[in-house]
Each structure stands twice: as C-alpha cells, then as structure tokens.
Amino acid sequence: MPSKKPSYFSTRKNRQKDYSYTDVEDTSIIKEEIPFKESTLETIDTAMFRWVDEEMNVSAKGNTGFKKVPVLWVSAERAYQIKRDKGLRDQDGTLLFPLITVERTSVIKSLSKKGTVYNAFPIQDALGGAITIARQINQEKTSNFANADSFKKRGSITDPSVGMNQQNFPRENKKVVYETVTIPVPVYLDIQYDIYVRTEYQQQMNEILAPFLVKTGSLNYFHIFNEGHGFESFIQEDYAQENNASSLDEEERQYQTKITVKVLGYVIGADTNQEQPRIVKRQNAVEVKIGREKVIVGDVPEHIDKRGFYRD
To answer: Strand locations in 167-312, DSSP E?
Structure first.
C-alpha cells in the first residue's frame, strides 16, 4: 500500500528556514519572519576587527616562516589576552612581533550627518518605534474574519466532492489584517579607529603595509559588514610612522605605523538599556463596533426577533 503523502500544511510547518543570508551567526535568536538584529557600538567594532583580521588576512615572514600576523583588539583586559593566547607573549609577558592592534579612539555624533530619516518621531505609546521596515498580511487573523463573515451570511454548505461541511465560502474579503513592523530611529555616528602595525624589522613592515595601501585602489573607500549591517569606511591619507630605529638607544628596536580609519556607523536602540522593544509589531483595525446604548446601560430590549436578537 503506498504511503500517504504529507499534506502541504504539514510540510510547510516542519520546513526549516534558511537565514544564512543575514550574516547572523546564531540564527536561533531570529524569531518568525524578521531576520533583523539591532546595530550597536559592539556591532561596528566587530565589523572593523573582522575586516582587519579576516578580510585583510595579512601575513609576514618571520623566524618561523611566512605566517599570518596576529590581530588584537586593544582593551584593558590584559589578563584575559594572556590566558587566551599564550603564543602572543614571551616568558616575560612581552608581546611578540609582528603584531597588529585595533583600537576605537573616538565617537562623534555629528549634527551635519544625520541620515535621511532623522526627523522621524517615535510613536507616542508604550511600544514606541518610528520607522517601518516590513509590512505583511497576517494570514491567520485575515482568514478568521473571512470565515466568520462567510459562515454568518451563508451558513454551512455541504460539498459532495469533499464529503464534509464547508463552513467558509469563497468570497471577496475586505477585512485584511496587516502586520506592520517598526524600529527606533537610527542614530548616525562618526567613529575613528587606529590600526597599529608593530614589527621588529623593516621588511616585515613593508610586507604588512602593502595590502592596506592597495586594498582600495586609488580611492580610500571600502565597506565593513557584521550581522547583516554594512558600514561605509575610509582609510585616511597619513600612514604615521613612529619608529625608534634612528635613536640608537638601548631599548628594543621597533617599527610602528598607525593607520587611521573613519567609519560612518549607526546605532539602533539603546542596547541592553533599551526599555521599549527594539522590534515592534502592530496590527490594523478592520472592524469598528459600537455597543448600543440599551446594552451599555443594561435596559431590557423592546424589540427582539424570533432568534432572540435585538433589532434596530
């Protein structure tokens, strides 16, 4: 006996959704049909760090061969860095070169770069939200209104071909429930990052700087991405060199070059301090009902039809 094919509704219910196009690592945080994550300062920082570490992927020749140059995010957690990767330091705790470090040095909320939606005011209610990013039909509630109106007007119709009572009859439905999704207003920021390249030899510095010089061609413009967000970035003209090779002092020789990158970023919401939802869903009203005065004040209806309903 041939096996029964699964119905369309059962296969649709069990179908696994693919969110790989959103660039979100943990797709379990995505609920329903909105593959969207808010943008925070950490989102922009991670995008810049990944651009240097993964996309640039700079390597240089050293005593152990041609290897990838380690990239570190400059922070105060020195103890964590030592425990996380012991190969970055020697026995005395001194960093081993060559090395690339990334640091966020400034954040400016410029009034001249406010974006195209700076004048969108949030909705004055408990949910908030200001910009509509999605609008779709709520199939379940729309069909409930259509079935209720059809059953009210036509009642139950027996369909011989189906062999069951058809409580809904095909008709034009004007009660369509739309679900609108809104988010807070994005706040645009000018963020500056300093990328420091530190080496022991001039040859290593030349090998590491070459990819940064030719990456954007004759321009200085590129994009960085993280969790579905993209940010415009600009490498500044000056590659400041801070070497101590000419001093001939007793300190260790070191070649250092600073690469400054400015990023036009944006943040959406107040991160963990956001009181209102970051993604707000609202549904429109399709029917307005006003209670009769007699029902409100509790009077006994004077005119009742045979079915027991009050008639105007």
So the answer is: 178-183, 187-199, 221-226, 229-241, 255-267, 280-283
C-alpha distance from residue 27 to each of 34, 105, 272, 280 (Å)? 11, 32, 19, 19
Residues recorded for the chain: 312
| CA–CA separation, 91 and 307 (whole Å) | 93
Q: How much is the pLDDT for 10?
A: 46
Give the list of residues 6+ apart from residue 88 with CB closer than 8 angstroms, or none.
Answer: 70, 72, 81, 82, 95, 96, 99
Residue 18, domain member (yes or no): no
Do you find a cis peptide bond into 98, omega within 30 degrees of 0? yes
Helical H runs in 175-235? 202-214
Token pair for 188: 């645009």
Q: What is the CATH number of the domain that holds 248?
A: 3.30.2000.40
Number of domains in the chain: 1
Task: Determine, yes or no, domain membership for 25.
Answer: no
Question: Cβ atoms within 10 A of the Cβ of 208, count?
Answer: 23
Burial of 23 (0-12, 13-18, 19+ CB in 10 A): middle
Query: Over the stretch 230-269, which tens digit does the pLDDT of each residue have?
Result: 999 999 999 998 887 666 566 677 889 999 999 999 998 8
First to last CA, the chain: 60
What is the C-alpha separation between 194 and 211, in angstroms, rounded?
16
Residue whose pair of structure tokens reads 């030349």 in the numeric block = 206
**Is residue 244 included in any domain, yes or no?**
yes
> Distance between CA atoms of 6 and 11, rounded to whole angstroms?
7
Quick check: 221 and 232 in contact, CB under 8 A? Answer: yes
The model carries a pTM of 0.69
